Amino acid sequence: MTATDDALTILRTRSLSGVLEREIEKAILNGEIPPGKRVNENLLATRFGTSRGPVREALRALEGLGLVELIPNRGVFIRQPAIEEAIEIYDVRSVLFGLAGRLLAERVSEAEIAQLKDYLAQMEEAARSRDFERYYPLNLAFHEFIIDACGNATLAAQYRGLVKKLHLFRARSLVQGGGLEVSNSEHREMVEAITARDAGRAQVAHFEHVTRAKTRLLAACRKADVEAQPPQLTN
Q: Domain 3-78's class?
C-alpha cells in the first residue's frame, strides 16, 4: 500500500466517523438512546454497516461534546447529568453569555451583524416547519458565533467548558412546548440589541435567554416526571 493509499484510507475513515457522529448524536438527542443506557458498539456497527473502529472514533468525539462518558471496564454510556448540576451550570452560563452579548454589542462589525441575521432567518424557517434536526445545529452555531465574536478568549474557554455538559438538557428544553419558536423570539431580541449596539440591552437579552431556557428545561423535567408516574387508582 502506498502513502497515497494510506492517506485516502485515513480520509475515508475520518469522513465515515464524522457521519456516524452526527447519526449517533441525532439518536441520543431524539431520545432513541436514552440517558444512562450503555452504548452497544456492535449494534451500531451493524446498524450503519461499518466496522467498530469508526463507531469508536465517533463515540470519542461525542465524549468530547459531553453526550457520552467512558466508564473503565464497563463501556460507553449516555451521560445522565443530575438536574441540580444542570441548574448550576445554567446559572453560571447566563452570566457569561450576558457578558458576551455586551462585549459583542460594543465591537460588532457589519459583517458580523449580517451573519447573525442570516442565522436568525435560517432558524426562523426551521422553527416554522418544526424541523428540530435542522434547528438544533443552527442554534448551537448561533451561540458559538456570539461567543467567538465577543473578543474574549478567557470567557469563550470557560463558556465552552460548561456548555459541553448541557447538550442533552438544551435539546430537551427546545423540543417542549413550542420551544423552537419561543427560543428564536429571544434570539431576535438579542440580534436587535446587538444591531443597535446597545450594550446594556444586549447583556440583558443574552442573560434572560439562558435563564428562560433553564425555566423551559425545568418545565420539561417536571412534565417527564409526571408522565413517568404510575396511574393512580380511583374509587
A: mainly alpha
User: What is the per-residue pLDDT across 191-213, written as a single tens digit (0 to 9) for each?
Assistant: 999 999 999 999 999 999 999 98
Which parts of 64-196 are beta strand (E)? Answer: 68-71, 75-78
- The predicted-structure confidence for 89-98, as pLDDT tens digits, reads as follows 899 999 999 9
In angstroms, how far apart are the furthest CA atoms of the chain? 78
* Phi then psi dihedrals of residue 63, to 5 deg: -65, -40
Tell me the domain boundaries of the chain.
Answer: 3-78, 83-228
Q: What does the alpha-carbon distance between residue 68 and residue 80 come to, in Å, rounded to a whole number? A: 9
Q: Where in the chain does DSSP place strands (E)?
A: 68-71, 75-78
Dihedral angle sign, alpha carbons of residues 210, 215, 216, 220: positive
Whole-angstrom distance, CA of residue 190 vs CA of residue 205:
5
CATH code, residues 83-228 = 1.20.120.530
How does pLDDT run across 56-110, given as a tens digit for each residue? 999 998 888 778 888 998 999 988 777 888 899 899 999 999 999 999 999 999 9
Give every CB contact of residue 53 below 8 A, 6+ residues apart in sequence.
13
Cell of 68: 457520552
Instruction: Copy the grid coordinates of residue 213.
Output: 431556557
The three three-digit cell numbers of residue 128, written as one number: 416554522
Q: What's the CA gap between 19 and 221, in Å, rounded? A: 30
Question: 38 in helix, strand or coil?
Answer: strand
Instruction: Answer yes or no: are the C-beta atoms of 117 and 191 closer than 8 Å.
Output: yes
